[in-house]
Amino acid sequence: MERREPPVVPVERLSGVTRERFLSYIYPQRKPVVLKGMELGACTTKWTVDYLSQAVGSKEVKIHVSAVPQMDFLSKNFVYRTLPFDVFVQRAAEVNHKEYFLSEDEKYYLRSVGEDVRKDIADIRKQFPTLAEDVQIPEYFEKEQFFSSVFRISSAGLQLWTHYDVMDNFLIQVTGKKRVALYSPQDAPYLYLSGTKSEVLDVDNPDLEKYPLFVKARRYQCFLEAGDVLFIPALWFHNVISEEFGVALNVFWKHLPADCYDKNDTYGNKDPTAASRAIQILDRALKTLEELPEEYRDFYARRMVLRIQEKAYRNDYG
Ligand SMILES: O=C(O)CCC(=O)C(=O)O
Ligand SMILES: [Fe+2]
């Protein structure tokens, strides 16, 4: 039987959005939007494979290498390897490799990190100072809100699993094309989450026997081209396919007051401390319910769910 495709909501595309317009009308809506024609500096014309190789040189980078396009965090079908940056960029830009780790047509993905991977936050100005000069990051938020700037380079075809980050984000697509599918934080119940990631890897052809509720998730979608900036509000899920080899830079900034965030968060994906604490307390409550026989546990668990709905849900959500 033919399956009916669920509807896709196009992400709004807006041109020439000033800082004032963004902050007054767009940012408060907490919805993704593609900003076209932003002033991004020389990077959009300068960042060829040869220029990047030469500008950065042989500095070592840790990358994801995957034999298949769709990376899977559950089965871990990818490996981490280290390459000199110039070698990595050349390889990521080619489809078939003379030298490779897993297979001739393996795919590569770089997500830049800080000097000390555990403690330092990715900042293109620190790890790739020569390239940072070529980028003009849209200053649509206050300097104190800045969290990180992450350099991302991807082979054609590579798909990054659906996940959320806890910071607001400008995903600046400098070169290459991407398809981004997004889901609202409201649709979390339909995404089968494992931490910050969705277990539904194949968003185009989901296994509905395993993930029946996924059909209820409303998919937003946009296609990014060189020079586009996608605003991804904190907690919005995103799934990214690189349709071409491409270079991107994403800037994370804090939406909440600084003291709400986990001080040990280097990736921008640790839940705000109040949320982590609440989840811990919930886990303790669940443990406590185990002291009761099933009939009682079920009754009190349902009452607790009702209490959570009544006290903590917002009332303008569908
Ligand atoms: O475009 C990509 O490679 C992934 C983007 C992403 O996950 C992000 O900017 O948070
Ligand atoms: Fe992300």
TrEMBL record:
Its EC number is 1.14.11.42. Its cofactor is Fe(2+). It comes from the Eukaryota. It catalyses: 7-[(3S)-3-amino-3-carboxypropyl]wyosine(37) in tRNA(Phe) + 2-oxoglutarate + O2 = 7-(2-hydroxy-3-amino-3-carboxypropyl)wyosine(37) in tRNA(Phe) + succinate + CO2. One of its GO terms (molecular function) is metal ion binding. Pathway: tRNA modification; wybutosine-tRNA(Phe) biosynthesis. InterPro entries: Cupin_8 (IPR041667), JmjC_dom (IPR003347). It is an enzyme of class 1 (oxidoreductase). Residues 126-270 form the JmjC domain. It holds the Pfam family Cupin_8. Keywords: Dioxygenase, Iron, Metal-binding, Oxidoreductase, tRNA processing. GO terms for biological process: wybutosine biosynthetic process. Homodimer. tRNA hydroxylase that acts as a component of the wybutosine biosynthesis pathway. Wybutosine is a hyper modified guanosine with a tricyclic base found at the 3'-position adjacent to the anticodon of eukaryotic phenylalanine tRNA. Catalyzes the hydroxylation of 7-(a-amino-a-carboxypropyl)wyosine (yW-72) into undermodified hydroxywybutosine (OHyW*). OHyW* being further transformed into hydroxywybutosine (OHyW) by LCMT2/TYW4. OHyW is a derivative of wybutosine found in higher eukaryotes. Belongs to the TYW5 family. This is tRNA wybutosine-synthesizing protein 5. It comes from Melopsittacus undulatus (Budgerigar). The gene is LOC101878845.
